Amino acid sequence: MNRFVPPGWRILAVPDFRRLWLAHAGSVVGDGFHAIAITWLVFQTLGGGPQALVVLGIANLVPSLALGILSGTVVDRLDRRRVMVGTDLIRAALVAFLAVLVASGNASVPVVIVMGTSLTVAALFFYPARNSVLAAYVAKEDLIPANAFMQATAQGAQLLAPALGGVLFVAIGPVGLLAIDAASFVWSALLLRRLTPGPALPGPEPRRPLLQEAADGLRFIARHAPSRLCVLTGAANQLFASGPWRVIVPVWVAVALGGGAIEYGTLLSAFSAGLITGSLVVSTIPPRLSLLTLIAAGVFLDGAIEILLAFSPTLAFAAMVLVAMGISNAVLNASFFALIQTAVPNAMRGRTFATFSTGINLTTPVSLAVTGAVASVAGPVAILTVAGAGLMTVGALSFLGSLRVRQEVGASAST
To answer: Which helix (H) or strand (E) holds 357?
Structure first.
């Protein structure tokens, strides 16, 4: 009878995965509320204006670049269950303290920025631990559906939580919204504390100085073909995708469609709908292709779809294109995570996830800067076309790399 139940739903019957998922669901809803609360607290309540939002955004990016690989190294040293519980409780305390400061009239823009940066630092430890430990509680064949199911939950929260958070910000104010956010972290910590302890424990390897272990992680990724291909493909994908998506798509809406905020919002909703649809499909019907092939195909399709977007004649056509892009991204994201979870040894998983995230965080500002510079001399259609061609090239190179990885893996297995 169980064979008729979709994998993404069947694994909810596994108690440890169910706890992970419920903790994740509560946490991502709280994150949506938190984003609204912090943004409008800085921008409006405290009168910081756009300049303060720029500083907040930069401050939230710096820890990821400075501490990424080190946070993964710490995760690989410790019981990942305790890392997740501890960082959730720290985040709950930080948000609760911020709520007290706001309620007492002692909050200021610099204080909020420091608190936001502290929350980002805590998250640097939480997410590599959560992503690394998933493979300990889910069967290998269920990892893609499990990751897709988790992503569908996050994407659903991203679609609904900001709107609800805006209503709550007006109805109960920033203090009430921050209190709900703090409660969501406590909810997550209580559920994660009930995970079976054993699978989350680190490996038996002897410990060395932190920086040496961090260097060990980088050397491992450089030598381990699947990890190396995953990190490089993820960074290259972000290099061609991030800037055009954030900077050029709004310009394209105005220039090509003669639209404004409503049309742009419609396209973002279409993309989110595609992400949710793709995640649910993957959680229901496991892909038959290899993870390396799925990653290469996902990047290549993203590029082709971006070129199609550039020449979309109507809003309705563009919306359908972005639904397709969302589906492609959902499969791509689930495949990235599942590849690291299956191909990387447990002892190196935290460092690999942290390096993967750091690579993306490094290429994102480069992509934004280059796109901004090119936008002054080229139109949005040309930029989207070039970016799409770049993604298709990355996808093709990734596929060729996957063939070489299979040869290396096959050669090592035969010796």
So the answer is: helix 349-374
